[in-house]
Design brief:
Elements: H1 4-22, E1 40-42, E2 48-50, E3 58-64, H2 73-84, E4 89-95, H3 107-118, H4 137-143, H5 145-148, E5 161-164, E6 170-174, H6 183-190
Parallel strand pairs: 3-4
Antiparallel strand pairs: 1-2, 3-5, 5-6
């Protein structure tokens, strides 16, 4: 019995020290958080769009397509933008032709389609690639922990949504099938 107490103490102390090592926050992530505000891109009209102009705003970045079963999400994206644009929120669309060639049109055709069919007024960028060897630098940032300092992900389909905070840091991504008006998104915008 007199040997049992020291053994229990040694085991307890050993377990405690192992937990404190794994709980060290500096060891959880070796990458530095970076901001989307570092990027300048071409918008759908061929002009420069500077992400640093979005400092202080929450941003939803979404890859779009005109011939997808999820294309009706343009309506919800526009409604979301209209509802919260005065509350420092913005949607930024990136047309992409990466999934079954569902965005074959030129920038001019995409712009016309978005405006006429869905009344889109949120910023739309020039068509890009969101995966593969020619993945656009903004999407490299959104999907690679080495670039964003937060997490890795893959764009799985059209209308995947990436949420970026007021400082330009990636927060999370939302599945393509999830509505832009989902409770998860609304709570994030409203700060709940």
């Amino acid at each position: 019995m007199k040997y049992l107490i020291p053994i229990i103490c040694i085991l307890f102390i050993g377990c405690k020290s192992q937990n404190s090592i794994t709980e060290n926050p500096s060891e959880k992530n070796i990458y530095t958080k970076q901001s989307i505000h570092q990027f300048k891109v071409e918008n759908i009209s061929g002009e420069t769009f500077d992400f640093s102009s979005l400092k202080g705003k929450k941003v939803m970045v979404v890859n779009t397509a005109s011939k997808c079963g999820l294309t009706p999400q343009y309506e919800d994206l526009q409604n979301l933008y209209e509802k919260y644009k005065e509350n420092n929120f913005i949607v930024v669309g990136f047309p992409a032709n990466n999934f079954l060639s569902q965005e074959p049109g030129s920038n001019e055709k995409i712009k016309s389609f978005c405006t006429e069919k869905f009344g889109v007024t949120f910023p739309m960028m020039a068509k890009v690639s969101v995966k593969g060897k020619d993945k656009h630098p903004v999407y490299q940032f959104l999907t690679e922990i080495e670039k964003n300092g937060i997490s890795n992900s893959k764009v799985s389909w059209n209308f995947q949504k990436y949420l970026v905070d007021e400082n330009g840091y990636l927060v999370k991504y939302i599945s393509p099938k999830s509505s832009p008006m989902s409770e998860d998104v609304i709570n994030w915008i409203e700060g709940n």
